[in-house]
Sequence to fold (333 residues):
Amino acid sequence: MKKQLFTLLFLTCIFFSARAQISISGRVTDAHGNAMEGVTVAIEGTSVGTVTLQSGSFSLNGVPSSNSVLAFSFIGFTTQEVTVGSRRVFNIRLGTSQSSMDTMVVIGYGTARKADFTGSASTVSSHIISNESNSTVTRALEGVVPGLQVSSIDGQPGLDMGIRLRGVSSTSQNSSNALIVIDGVPSQYPNALSTINPNDIQSITVLKDAVSTAIYGSRGANGVILVTTKRGRKGPAKITLSTRDGFNYLPRSIQPKLIQNAKDVYEYTWQSIYNSVRYGVGGTSSTNGTYSTNVQNPNMSASDAALFASQHLFDYNGSMTNFSRNWLGNWML
Fold:
């Protein structure tokens, strides 16, 4: 009798325990509504979990209670946590994570984690490119990527700089440039990067070794530049304004000599009259509309020009015959 009661009590506990557990299902998509395969769906604090199918759908049995928290995670996307509550069907939309993208590297056939990637590649984020004060993307990469050289390959106006990753491997300079791939499409033009607005770029990945560039064959022999542009996002409109300003000045050590006092005013005025009457064009004090002076054949000797400048320091106005008070004479009043 006791054995039968114990068996009945055990079966009752199993029945109520089974009824207490919850079964849920749902579908996981990205920000564009595309199904996501391989998303991990787990219950926090337990070993219960599953992954989504190719269609993005999932089903999970054995959820302990309505207070359980479901965690949806995938590489490159923000982990989303949802409390079960009274819901039994979950349609989850995951958004990309910038911090997670920093651990990813774009390669020829997709993306890979930096920790698992064994090739030689460098990634440049959009923040670095947009903060550079350069007119082209090529200039922005200069000094940012190790081993990358930027040099002029032609004097043709408007032609962009050439990008070298493995030095010069050909007698033809154009044959040594890296392959430019924009959003997965190899460019056929040498001026590809000069036509892209730096603010439209999400990231740039530079592939350097043979393992990383193997998918491009002989075209990637000089390295590959992978450019990923920004895409539209669902949400409210966003306007960004970026301005730059600057100023130039001469260091104190090479500043021109400036007029500082009355002595300098007298000296430079006397020198200007001396040069005008001695080196004026056509025997006069004027340049006569030309861009040269009569230095090789002076109008008078140095002593005569010096005497004239001293005598007419206050009344010379460009004429050697008609004199009237000049600006220096007015300034002395």
Remarks:
- Residues 256-332 form one domain.
